[in-house]
Design goal:
The chain is an alpha/beta fold. The protein is 38% helix and 15% strand. The chain is globular, with a radius of gyration of 16 Å. The protein starts with a strand and ends in a 6-residue tail after the last helix. Bound molecules: flavin mononucleotide. Flavin mononucleotide binds next to helix 1.
């Protein structure tokens, strides 16, 4: 059984992206064990002068490192990802590098019609940066629009077509995780490059 992390891309108490990750967790129990990680307790990133990371960051990094893959669901704030999500990714790319070569599937939900498409595009760019360097599943998007109306009371996604789309993407992601394991020839070097990379010198 694959072990996955479902990362809730917001610190909001009420979040349709959290509902989406919870739905994914419950719907795919036979394919994967998905642990949900929250980012709401993380402090605001500042470069720690003693290079000592908050305990919570270290714990999150270990869990991501140990997982076969990560599913991130992002809201869209001002055409990008929420500050809380980029904050979490800043922490998870500073002195810890759990995302290097990690398979990632991006999903998102928004109240409007576009389903957080612009935030998802940004998230791809962010995850491609030298200290994150994730393996983002290509040519795939799960855009949940009108997300406030999308879920039934018990947390089920109401629209069968959306469920079918998600099932297809998730099956692809399981395969992508397997394929990615074979793309490991540069992994040690990629990890080292991320560790040695610095923005502090030119
Ligand atoms: C500061 C702020 C900016 C927002 N900007 C956008 C936006 O650019 N595009 C959009 O579709 N929704 C925007 N929204 C609305 C929703 O937060 C957004 O649709 C979100 O994806 C809902 O996710 P959630 O239910 O997980 O909080 C914004 C909301 C806030 C509070």
């Amino acid at each position: 059984m694959k072990k996955m992390i479902g990362l809730v891309g917001t610190n909001s108490d009420q979040s349709t992206n959290r509902q989406l990750i919870q739905f994914i967790q419950n719907h795919f129990t036979e394919q994967a064990e998905i642990e949900i990680l929250e980012i709401r307790e993380l402090p605001l990133f500042n470069k720690p002068s003693n290079q000592k990371l908050p305990h919570l960051v270290c714990k999150m990094a270990q869990k991501i490192e140990a997982a076969d893959g990560v599913i991130i669901s992002t809201p869209e704030y001002d055409h990008s990802v929420p500050a809380a999500l980029i904050n979490a990714l800043n922490w998870l790319s500073y002195d810890v590098y759990p995302f290097v070569d990690k398979p990632v599937m991006i999903t998102g939900a928004s109240y409007g019609t576009l389903g957080s498409s612009r935030a998802q595009a940004h998230l791809r760019q962010i995850l491609d940066s030298p200290e994150l360097k994730a393996r983002i599943m290509p040519s795939s998007e799960f855009l949940l629009s009108h997300s406030l109306q999308a879920f039934a009371e018990e947390g089920r996604l109401k629209d069968k077509e959306q469920v079918a789309k998600l099932e297809g993407l998730f099956a692809d992601f399981m395969r992508f995780v397997e394929l990615t394991k074979q793309l490991n020839h540069g992994h040690a070097l990629n990890k080292k490059e991320a560790e040695n990379f610095t923005w502090d010198e030119s």
